[in-house]
């Protein structure tokens, strides 16, 4: 199985379209969406409809913090710009969209793989896994050999050896990494819809469970159109600028 891993879509129609087309060209035969389908971007209904269609065909999907917030009745504690986007996104959602986001699980397991938006240690706390010690806690929380997660908007790969030593790897686009079956890995594909590592190209990853090869990809897309959409629907300018600048 060649599994395409997409996270932090953030209502970015142009980026998601480009990544799905690229994944199809790479031979993907299954898909996993690692949360934050909505938030920041200007096409939340289209993105949720697209993911719903993939899930209906067997794709994996888990809940991100923005998805959780849309489905929650509580008013979240967020920056004013983010809160304004959440309220606008809610106004774009149908009851079916809200129900879908609210019923997404925090984690899914499949064939020795764990899918989670943030840390597997305590998914509902939405911890940002940015350091080896945070990655270690996430890996220690599961017996799965491979954990796929998002939330941090930048590609990363962590390894925990059989004797507990932690290592990191800086993934490069298009490079295949063979995962050692004796080790445990935490793979973060990077954001489809709002990269924040200084590169505005969309991110996703592909995992072949037969060969244990993991590949990261950067996919250029029409970020200008996505930014204009953000501005056109009246969302804060900062979210348009992030798409252009990749920060």
Automatic annotation (TrEMBL):
Pfam families given in the database record: Metallophos_2
InterPro entries the UniProt entry points to: Ap4A_hydrolase, Calcineurin-like_PHP_lpxH, Metallo-depent_PP-like, Pesterase_MJ0912
Occurrences of domain Calcineurin-like phosphoesterase (ranges): 1-208
Family (UniProt): Belongs to the metallophosphoesterase superfamily. YfcE family.
PANTHER family: BLL5683 PROTEIN, METALLOPHOSPHOESTERASE
Name of the protein: Metallophosphoesterase family protein
């Amino acid at each position: 199985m060649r599994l395409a891993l997409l996270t932090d879509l953030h209502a970015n129609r142009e980026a998601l379209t480009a990544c799905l087309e690229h994944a199809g060209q790479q031979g993907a035969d299954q898909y996993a969406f690692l949360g934050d389908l909505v938030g920041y971007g200007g096409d939340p209904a289209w993105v949720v409809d697209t993911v719903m269609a993939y899930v209906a065909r067997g794709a994996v999907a888990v809940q991100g913090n923005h998805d959780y917030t849309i489905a929650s009745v509580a008013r979240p504690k967020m920056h004013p710009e983010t809160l304004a986007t959440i309220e606008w996104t809610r106004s774009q959602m149908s009851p079916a969209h809200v129900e879908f986001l609210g019923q997404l699980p925090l984690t899914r397991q499949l064939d020795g793989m764990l899918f989670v938006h943030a840390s597997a240690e305590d998914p509902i706390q939405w911890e940002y896994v940015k350091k080896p010690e945070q990655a270690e806690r996430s890996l220690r929380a599961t017996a799965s050999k491979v954990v796929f997660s998002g939330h941090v908007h930048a590609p990363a790969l962590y390894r925990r050896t059989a004797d507990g030593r932690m290592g990191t790897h800086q993934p490069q686009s298009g490079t295949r990494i063979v995962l050692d079956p004796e080790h445990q890995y935490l793979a973060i594909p990077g954001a489809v819809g709002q990269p924040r590592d200084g590169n505005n190209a969309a991110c996703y990853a592909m995992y072949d469970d037969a060969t244990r090869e993991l590949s990261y990809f950067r996919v250029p897309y029409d970020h200008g159109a996505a930014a204009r959409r953000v501005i056109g629907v009246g969302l804060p300018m900062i979210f348009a600028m992030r798409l252009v600048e990749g920060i």
